[in-house]
Amino acid sequence: MRKSILAFAFGTAILFTTVSCDRNNDTQIQNDQDTVALVTEINVTFRKQNYYAQYEDFKHNINKADNVLIYRLDGIANGKNVWHFIPRTYYVSNADNTAQKEIDFNYDFSISGVTFTIGGTFNKINPENYVVPYLNNQRFRAVIIPGNMAAKTSKSYNKGGLSSLPVNYQDYNAVAKYYNIKESDVKMLK
After folding, report:
1. Is CB count within 10 Å lower at the N or C end of the chain?
2. Which PROSITE patterns match (predicted)?
């Protein structure tokens, strides 16, 4: 009996030694390859008739736990699109820099779509000519992150703070790389 207890204790010690875990890093973020972030793109024109807001349906409802990140095309640099994370505020000036206006891009989302909004200090009845380019034909990308990915990110953030996020969500290129998003994956809403 004594030998069997000793053998059991020895076996248990070996088991705990081989199955031990590193307690310094108990948060593991994994980007599984069978769950993917979806990307849609849309052009929006803001008008006073729609109170500078435009609602766009998703082709299919998303899950309640999903998260949506929105980026606005701000231009092209070195032959690549430059996407800015919104909400975002821009300050634009007239040609002789005697007047400046604030332009605020924002959004809200539900399981069925996204509402894009623009606000700021520009004239809402008759927008200034240097503001108009920011109202017309604005291109946005919506990155829909499945709830299980968003939950892992939230768990990481709550435990370790901002520096422990697996990706900088303000950088579209970093998000595209992390979630393995290719340009061919982008679907137009309209």
Report:
1. N
2. PROKAR_LIPOPROTEIN
